[in-house]
Design goal:
The chain is mainly beta. It has a single domain (3-618), classed as TolB, C-terminal domain (Neuraminidase, 6 Propeller). The protein has 7 helices and 28 strands. The longest helix is centred in the first third of the chain and has 18 residues, at 26-43. The structure holds MU-OXO-diiron and calcium ion (2 copies). One calcium ion (CA) binds next to loops.
Length: 625
């Protein structure tokens, strides 16, 4: 290992823990290359309005270098500096930072210690998915805290690793979810310190387990002999919002929290598919036996779910919804299908894993009971066919050969069993509010065409993931049959393939809606605004050289689904990714998450870098989305 653990991204750490199987057969690589040649010719014609992949009805007639009147700003240039940039006529301010008090009994942030070791009364670390809820006169933001930056969070410890139970508690308290009331006054937006709605949910918050896997033997532990109660949620990545006013938080890289103090133990079947091994990322297991696989081998089976939280009630108990499957959940995009059923689109962010959707059995009745809606339904996985059509394949005992509970605990194996399409790391899914279609950011996949996934599934290039060793990413979109999100058939195309036309003249140049003015890589967060524009946030290589020259720091762009045009709206400090986006109730303010800056943001040189939520407004206070 050349990098120390604390300097690795989650992704890099995961790869070191769970090296994938060796390369595919030479034959497979050659076959993939041949089919790719045919496909890419079509994709590169995207901007000319040519019919692509048999999905001609979906393809916009793109006028090269179209100027859309739908963008109310002049796009900005790339940046490589330590601050935030937005277009002329817009401004930004800090709403809150890691360590800022949610309650007045929490101390102000101390840069020498990284904050109070016991406190869970502060805004957590590594802000991520975010949704705004209006409760009476109150505006509440529910926001995830994905993981840690150990060297910053425990600055006095060697390598940022815990050396005591108190250190572990601090780490656990910095993650999870914050619910906070926000308000706009003469001095701009602020968190309402001591609001009765303010709440922290973290690794030790009691939760209920519901749905088809609840009570299964694999979920039982000594502390919970019935398999229905669990402490905490972890690695909360993207989020979601239900029409009945609850927040969905998504457990992503839960595997890295568990380890074994006894390295000689044999790990249960299925752990390798999820990257659970005897080495953990934060060494909790040395101080908290719940995370020690020798003592609690079932504990990891209790993570990797979608958790439903009622932000309007601080006493409400969060619920893990096992019906939405167990994998590395990115976000949870909820739509009501034309037949009234609840559809939740779900990405599993790992190289060569899958894209899912859940469809409730019953239709949503406004004001009615909602408990069953995310418990009783069917989980599907996507198969994208090369002719531009696709199918959602139901994961059932018949289709998978697994029993119902196993499908929801070992969901990745269930998806492998039905021949779904391996994807280039499905990140956020966003559904267009003014057109029946949805988009998924496939952020990148250096293993595409190189190595199978951890289940041994072939990851040769395919129509929707057409580039080997894909380090730029693409965004796929689909239209469900009959304009019904609950339908099992769909048509699809690629909205954009990121790339660099200044560095490449082949498929790695990207699709023709990529130009020197909008270069980016690794699309990740995606949210539609109310007008049907797609906001795209990146989490990619920010070195601004070689293949990534001209891309600068991570950024937020806006795409017009109708013209294909994509323009740059925001850049963030170097080292940071942009993740999480929601609007104030009047849509005149936009809340944007800035995660893990390496730049000394926002407090300046000599201070710890702090993940932050910023507010962006138009100077004329007009609506911005
Ligand atoms: Fe937490 Fe896949 O990003
Ligand atoms: Ca992400
Ligand atoms: Ca990412």
């Amino acid at each position: 290992m050349t990098n120390s653990r604390e300097e690795l991204s989650w992704d890099e750490w995961d790869e070191l823990q769970s090296p994938r199987p060796d390369e595919n057969d030479f034959d497979q690589v050659v076959d993939a290359a041949l089919s790719r040649r045919g496909f890419l010719g079509s994709v590169l014609a995207f901007g000319s309005g040519a019919a692509v992949m048999g999905a001609g009805a979906l393809m916009p007639n793109v006028v090269e270098a179209a100027t859309s009147s739908r963008f109310a700003f002049t796009p900005i240039d790339v940046a490589t500096d330590a601050t935030v940039h937005v277009p002329e006529g817009y401004s930004w301010n800090i709403l809150t930072r890691w360590g800022d008090p949610l309650f007045s009994d929490a101390p102000e942030f101390d840069h020498s210690t990284g904050g109070d070791p016991k406190s869970d009364r502060i805004f957590g670390e590594n802000t991520d998915g975010m949704e705004l809820f209006t409760v009476g006169e109150h505006q509440l933001v529910a926001v995830n805290h994905e993981y840690l930056n150990p060297k910053l969070n425990l600055p006095q410890n060697e390598g940022g690793m815990p050396s005591s139970v108190a250190d572990v508690l601090k780490m656990q308290n910095l993650q999870g979810v914050t619910v906070m009331e926000v308000t706009e006054g003469d001095s701009g937006w602020n968190v309402v310190v001591d609001s009765p709605f303010n709440r922290r949910i973290h690794h030790n918050t009691p939760m209920r387990i519901a749905g088809p896997a609840a009570g299964h033997d694999l979920l039982k532990t000594e502390a919970d002999p019935y398999g229905v109660e669990v402490l905490g949620t972890m690695n909360n990545c993207g989020g979601g919002k239900t029409p009945w006013g609850t927040y969905l938080t998504c457990e992503e890289n839960f595997n890295g929290y568990f380890g074994a103090t006894n390295k000689a133990i044999e790990l249960p079947n299925g752990f390798d598919r999820y990257g659970i091994g005897s080495d953990s990322r934060y060494e909790y297991e040395k101080f908290d036996p719940r995370y020690d696989l020798e003592k609690n081998p079932n504990e990891p089976n209790r993570f990797g779910y979608i958790v439903e939280i009622d932000p309007s009630d601080v006493t409400s108990k969060p619920v893990k919804r096992t019906a939405l499957g167990r994998f590395k959940h990115e976000n949870a995009e909820v739509v009501i299908a034309s037949d009234g059923r609840v559809v939740v689109y779900l990405g599993d962010d790992e190289r060569g894993e899958y894209l899912y959707k859940y469809v409730s059995e019953a239709a949503y009745q406004p004001g009615g009971d909602t408990e069953h809606l995310l418990n009783e339904g069917t989980l599907f996985v996507a198969r994208f066919d090369a002719d531009g059509t696709g199918q959602w394949i139901a994961l059932t005992p018949d289709s998978t050969g697994m029993d119902m509970a196993e499908i929801y605990i070992h969901t990745r194996m269930a998806a492998s069993a039905v021949g779904a399409t391996t994807m280039d790391r499905p990140e956020w899914v966003a559904a267009n509010p003014i057109s029946v279609e949805a988009y998924c950011a496939l952020t990148n996949n250096k293993n595409r065409g190189k190595k199978p996934n951890a289940g041994g599934d072939d990851t040769s290039t395919n129509a929707v993931n057409p580039r080997e060793a894909n380090h730029y990413g693409q965004i796929v979109r689909w239209k469900p049959a009959d304009e019904n999100h609950a339908a099992t058939a769909f048509t699809w195309d690629l909205y954009v393939m990121a790339g660099n036309p200044t560095a490449h003249s082949d498929a790695y140049a990207g699709s023709s809606n990529i130009n020197e003015g909008n270069l980016f890589n690794s699309p990740d967060g995606m949210v539609f605004d109310s007008s049907g524009l797609l906001w795209i946030q990146t989490d990619g290589n920010y070195k601004n050289e070689g293949d990534f020259a001209g891309m600068g720091n991570n950024q937020m762009l806006v795409g017009d689904p109708e013209t294909g045009e994509i323009v740059r709206f925001m850049t963030v400090p170097y080292g940071a990714e942009v993740t999480g986006l929601c609007w104030s109730a009047d849509r005149r303010s936009m809340f944007v998450g800035i995660q893990h800056p390496k730049a000394p943001f926002p407090d300046g040189e000599g201070k710890l870098a702090r993940s932050s939520v910023v507010v962006v407004k138009r100077d004329d206070n007009a609506v911005i989305g």
